[in-house]
Amino acid sequence: MISRIQNWFGNGWLGIVELLITALCVFLSLSVHEFGHGYVAYKMGDNTARYMGRLNINPLSHLDPIGAICLFLFGFGWAKPVPVNPRNFKSGKFKSGMVWTSLAGPLSNIILAFFAVLFLTVISKFYAGTTQLGNKVFSIVVVLLSTLVYMNINLAVFNLLPVPPLDGSKILNAVLPSRIYFKIMQYEQYGFVLLIILINTPLFGRVLNFLSNLILTGIDIIIGLIPFL
Fold first, then answer.
1. Can you list the pairs that 71-74 forms with residues at least 24 positions away whose Cβ atoms lie under 8 Å?
2. Distance CA 99, CA 89 (A)
3. Any domain includes 136
4. Runs of H (alpha helix) within the chain
5. Assigned domain for 229 exists
């Protein structure tokens, strides 16, 4: 973390550009994540997010200060949860609606990462630098897209962990039998403490990197199947 901050403020204009790119990626990644939740809940019949002004990609609507700082410094974090009322889901699809709504945020980040990799692949293959300015712009775009890929894949994997208040816990709870679900919910208030402990264990980083690399490999394989690339 310290070395990253030193890079931002110790490398002149390049460090400032990287800092601005990171901030832009944080805002975009968290906003897309929460919009994904809100949009799928809306399509399932719940208008809560829309009524509360959360059905958008405006960062000011979604940022959680601590979660944004964690994403900014470490590459994983969280946003202010979009309000969802499962009772509004069509045809009483309480559990399936919660699964899809919870999955929507991480999947939105993976989709954003996919298009960032795709665009990065295209410009790297077809760009032929001719001017100094053009090469600088190209370098900035590469850093922007690379940061988007890294941040969104990590954000997706992190939020799929089955620990409250992350999306993974909501998916797990939705597929569990009711009696087990209510037993787990008794300890939900301790989820954030457990999350902090996990983040500070060496194993956490290894698992996060392994799963993130797995998703990135999958994206690379799919893009590799595109004929013109």
1. 71/26, 71/29, 71/30, 71/151, 71/155, 72/22, 72/23, 72/26, 73/1, 73/4, 73/5, 74/1
2. 12
3. yes
4. 2-10, 12-43, 48-51, 59-62, 65-74, 94-126, 132-159, 167-175, 178-185, 191-199, 202-224
5. no
Residue-wise pLDDT tens digits, 87-114: 888 876 777 888 899 999 999 999 999 9
Q: Whole-prediction pTM value?
A: 0.87
- Residues annotated as part of the active site: 34
Residue 23 belongs to a domain: yes
Based on the structure, what is the number of domains in the chain?
A: 1
Looking at the domain assignment, is residue 109 inside a domain? yes
Torsion, CA 153, CA 157, CA 158, CA 161, rounded to 10: 170
Domain span holding position 162 = 2-224
